[in-house]
TrEMBL record:
Record's protein name: ATP-grasp fold PylC-type domain-containing protein
Residue ranges occupied by any ATP-grasp fold PylC-type domain in the UniProt entry: 20-119
Species of provenance: Aspergillus chevalieri
Domain of life: Eukaryota
Listed Gene3D superfamilies: ATP-grasp fold, B domain
Pfam family, any one: ATP-grasp_3
Length: 209
């Protein structure tokens, strides 16, 4: 945490807000919805994804279980409606992403709000595609690799053609290193782990000295 604060200060940040630690036994969710005009007071729920972070606390992607979306929508209806009311007071309409944690009493608590399209929106919008292929799970992962932005399309051409893997973004960040956002489906969570490991293996890693 202190290292993250140091980087934040180096980028010009001056204010740090601390909050009480929230204990939870459930996944940390990223909830996507759309706030429309006053004539439709209930926002449009798009989907809730589970946040994926490394052991060092670095966010690397999301997982979605399409089978539980209706239950999560019912459970979070009041929460997203309250957020929508707050945003409408500032005349905001559009995409919204909130980070949400269920506490030990199973009460949803909003810990962050992004009035924009969230990074994990791809797995939400591809639900019909993956379900049609028999994949009730999907994952979005951000992967760094050596070489030009075209590398993922060449390295995973067969899987992309089959529809199991979708590259939603690939960009060159330096002369030698690129980053890609990759979405892939699976029949189980174990399938996602297997495909994720394969993607990281097939894309050439950059070894820093």
């Amino acid at each position: 945490m202190f290292d993250a604060v140091r980087r934040y200060r180096e980028r010009g940040g001056t204010e740090v807000e601390l909050s009480e630690f929230i204990h939870s036994r459930r996944p940390h969710y990223g909830v996507n919805f759309f706030v429309s005009g006053y004539d439709t007071p209930q926002p449009c729920f798009l989907g809730a994804t589970e946040q994926v972070v490394t052991k060092n606390g670095v966010w690397v992607g999301v997982i979605i279980d399409y089978r539980v979306q209706e239950d999560l929508e019912r459970r979070l209806q009041q929460t997203i409606a309250a957020v929508a009311r707050t945003l409408r007071k500032s005349s905001y309409m559009g995409w919204v992403g909130i980070d949400l944690i269920f506490d030990l009493n199973d009460q949803p608590l909003v810990v962050d709000l992004n009035a924009r399209i969230a990074a994990g929106i791809g797995v939400v919008l591809f639900s019909r595609h993956f379900l049609s292929m028999g994949f009730p799970f999907a994952q979005m992962e951000t992967v760094s690799f050596c070489g030009p932005a075209s590398v993922p399309y060449d390295a995973m051409s067969a899987e992309i053609e089959s529809g199991q893997v979708i590259v939603t973004l690939s960009a060159e960040v330096t002369e030698t290193e690129s980053v890609a956002s990759v979405v892939f489906g699976g029949r189980t969570r174990e399938d996602l782990h297997t495909v994720g490991d394969w993607i990281r293996d097939v894309l050439p890693a950059c070894f820093k000295t």
